[in-house]
């Protein structure tokens, strides 16, 4: 009988009732796979042989030949570029290789298997037929799942492979197949699936190999159960020293969840193992430190800069921009003093999140403009998604440029954000999926391939959904809409909460300035400082209105008075 399932939760039941508590198998094939895709180090031993004494006569002969060759070149008509980069200049090696191309490899191309990867889930009969057509000498199940990994196939297709294998093997799926499926879950950031595979592995194996730990750590750090990834890191330490990637994932997860103490502890532990951290790890500390008013944190960031100097490490362009933004964030251009950040403290953020959930979401506008069933559907959707970086009010954004097709505007915005590897959520209405002159089906398919999407009933209000998703994703998450949300601010009970909401809104709402067909979307830069009267003791910074400039209540002044006490 054919067996096919749509969710891996049913897959839990396929395992035998007596879990095997042995060590997870570590196959060379699996190690190669994980090295290719996650940079896991394969340890090899090398024997060192002493060099033979230098042959002085031979060396003198080589020097003489070199001199002869140099004189011969000087006497020829061959020209040498006057602007050739020096030996150690960035890009010099590549230019040299381009000037001296290697001989082409005339070996025959590898024979390709005629089987094409399916683009939709198959049932057992269809997988049996595909296996019969397979002409390779390797194990078909391992081959097909590896091809899916290389092509980053969808989770649903890979899941149907596991269901087929389980149906033919008394409900058991081998470790190799399971860990490759886990790789796809991590790549696609399928949080719910990652947790399900984690539960299976935890019940079935007492220990995993390093690649399995690496995948689980990376996957769990983006979920509410991120602290369990730290326990996996401890398990890994019992066998080997964790890699810089393991530490990087744990540090990024700790910062994502606002636990800076854990992040610094892991960083010091990493250095204690004499491991050079990934530049991504160091960049994350600077990104988190924007606007942080803490001398201890400031000193630690300065220590990172010294670490770069002492180890001759060079930040990439993105990292350098993060350092520059941190250095310049909140500084008065007049006196150089640091002014108050627009970022909320962790305590302020949690307070505001609780008030929004209570006064705007629970019993507020959302209940009057949607059904309890739809609200439950949306909450479940958010619960099983990883934290988002950007939440988009799809209908609002699509209507920003009336002369353009609405679905095309949405595609342009989502595509630009997706190219930056940002996790994007698009909130929309169901009518956006109906083909018409303003909403093309192929455009919406492009949107759904590059972003997570939730389409509410046409009568529902978008803003409360947007607030819920943004706040649920964490303090790093930004949102895009031209709605200023004055109604929702008015729902808040007191001036303090309204003030915090406006501050949070200024630091998280992205505005689109312009769009040119076939070109980039231009976003307005979010200010890094709070526009309020503030003092540092020996200085005052006072935002003030300009004469003849009308300012609405939801706007802030752009002019500042800088007062600094002379000593």
What is the alpha-carbon Rg in Å?
Answer: 29 Å
Tell me, what's the shape? globular
Instruction: Work out the helicity level.
Output: 40-55%
Q: For the terminal residues, how far apart are their CA atoms?
A: 88 Å
Query: Sheet bearing the most strands, described?
Result: 6 strands, mixed
Major β-sheet strand ordering? 5-4-3-6-7-8
| Strand percent estimate | 5-15%
Low-confidence stretches: 1-84, 103-109
Mean pLDDT across residues:
79
Q: What is the count of β-strands?
A: 11
Helix-strand makeup class: alpha/beta
Helix count? 25
Walk me through what this model shows.
- The N and C termini lie far apart (88 Å).
- Helix 7 packs antiparallel against helix 8, helix 10 runs antiparallel to helix 11 and helix 11 runs antiparallel to helix 12.
- A six-stranded mixed beta sheet has the order 5-4-3-6-7-8, with helices on both faces.
- 50% of the residues lie in helices and 8% in strands.
- The protein is an alpha/beta fold and 567 residues long.
- It has 25 helices and eleven strands.
- The N terminus is likely disordered.
């Amino acid at each position: 009988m054919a067996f096919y399932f749509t969710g891996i939760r049913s897959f839990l039941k396929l395992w035998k009732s007596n879990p095997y508590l042995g060590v997870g198998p570590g196959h060379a094939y699996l190690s190669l796979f994980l090295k290719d895709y996650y940079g896991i180090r394969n340890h090899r031993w090398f024997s060192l042989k002493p060099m033979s004494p230098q042959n002085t006569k031979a060396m003198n002969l080589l020097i003489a030949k070199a001199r002869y060759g140099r004189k011969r070149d000087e006497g020829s008509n061959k020209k040498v570029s006057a602007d050739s980069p020096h030996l150690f200049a960035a890009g010099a090696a590549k230019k040299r290789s381009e000037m001296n191309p290697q001989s082409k490899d005339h070996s025959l191309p590898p024979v390709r298997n005629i089987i094409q990867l399916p683009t939709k889930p198959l049932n057992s009969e269809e997988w049996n037929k595909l296996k019969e057509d397979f002409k390779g000498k390797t194990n078909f199940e391992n081959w097909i799942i590896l091809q899916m990994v290389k092509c980053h196939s969808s989770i649903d297709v890979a899941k149907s492979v596991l269901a087929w294998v389980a149906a033919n093997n008394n409900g058991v799926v081998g470790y190799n197949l399971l860990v490759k499926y886990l790789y796809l879950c991590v790549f696609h950031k399928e949080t719910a699936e990652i947790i399900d595979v984690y539960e299976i592995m935890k019940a079935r194996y007492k220990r995993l190999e390093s690649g399995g730990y690496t995948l689980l750590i990376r996957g769990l750090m983006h979920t509410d159960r991120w602290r369990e990834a730290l326990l996996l890191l401890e398990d890994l330490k019992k066998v080997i020293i964790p890699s810089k990637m393991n530490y990087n994932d744990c540090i990024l997860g700790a910062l994502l969840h606002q636990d800076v103490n854990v992040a610094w502890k892991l960083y010091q532990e990493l250095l204690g193992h004499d491991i050079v951290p990934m530049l991504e790890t160091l960049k994350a500390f600077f990104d988190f430190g924007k606007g942080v008013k803490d001398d201890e944190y400031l000193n630690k960031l300065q220590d990172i800069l010294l670490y770069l100097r002492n180890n001759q490490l060079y930040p990439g362009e993105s990292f350098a921009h993060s350092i520059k933004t941190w250095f310049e964030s909140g500084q008065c251009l007049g006196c150089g003093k640091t002014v108050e950040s627009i970022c909320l403290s962790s305590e302020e953020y949690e307070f505001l999140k609780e008030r929004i959930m209570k006064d705007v979401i629970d019993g507020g506008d959302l209940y009057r403009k949607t059904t309890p069933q739809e609200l439950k559907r949306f909450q479940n959707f958010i619960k099983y998604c990883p934290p988002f970086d950007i939440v988009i009010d799809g209908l609002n954004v699509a209507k920003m440029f009336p002369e353009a097709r609405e679905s095309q505007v949405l595609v342009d915005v989502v595509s630009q954000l997706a190219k930056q590897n940002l996790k994007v959520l698009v909130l929309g209405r169901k009518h956006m999926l109906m083909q018409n002159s303003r909403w093309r089906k192929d455009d919406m398919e492009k949107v759904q391939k590059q972003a997570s999407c939730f389409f509410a009933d046409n009568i529902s209000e978008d803003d409360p959904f947007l607030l819920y998703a943004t706040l649920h994703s964490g303090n790093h998450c930004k949102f895009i809409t031209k709605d200023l949300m004055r109604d929702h601010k008015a729902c808040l009970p007191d001036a303090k909460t309204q003030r915090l909401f406006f501050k949070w809104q200024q630091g998280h709402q992205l505005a689109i300035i312009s769009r040119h067909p076939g070109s980039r979307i231009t976003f307005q830069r979010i200010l890094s400082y709070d526009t309020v009267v503030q003092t540092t003791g020996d200085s005052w910074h006072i935002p003030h209105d300009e004469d003849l400039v009308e300012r609405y209540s939801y706007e802030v002044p752009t002019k500042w008075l800088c007062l600094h006490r002379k000593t």
